[in-house]
Amino acid sequence: MIRLDSELQTSISSLKEENSRQQLAAERRLQDVIQKFEDEKQQLIRDNDRAIKALQDELENRANQVRCAEKKLQHKELESQEQITYIRQEYETKFKGLMPASLRQELEDTISSLKSQVNFLQKRASILQEELTTYQGRRYSPRS
Prior knowledge:
Elements: H1 2-98, H2 101-140
């Protein structure tokens, strides 16, 4: 019985040692897996940070391109306005040179007179329209 007890003690001790070794090996594997996942996580974070930085750089580059294009457009618009002004002045200078001053003054006076006549006729037409509306209102209204 002592021998059996001793064998059982040895067996129990051996099983405890095996259990400790297996538990230690399992903990090492777990730590290895945790470390592997942590390394992968850190790599993903670095990759993500690089991707975000690249996108921010691209966005800044595009914004600079837009600002540059807007400045070019403003410059072209200003250039176009200057050309229009120059052409208009050149035309007016040539036109003035072709027409005698007395004829030009006479035409300007005629234009002014015609504008006055148009204003007068518009007022007269408005008055006549009001009179017509009043007349029609009386004509079609029921008499009491």
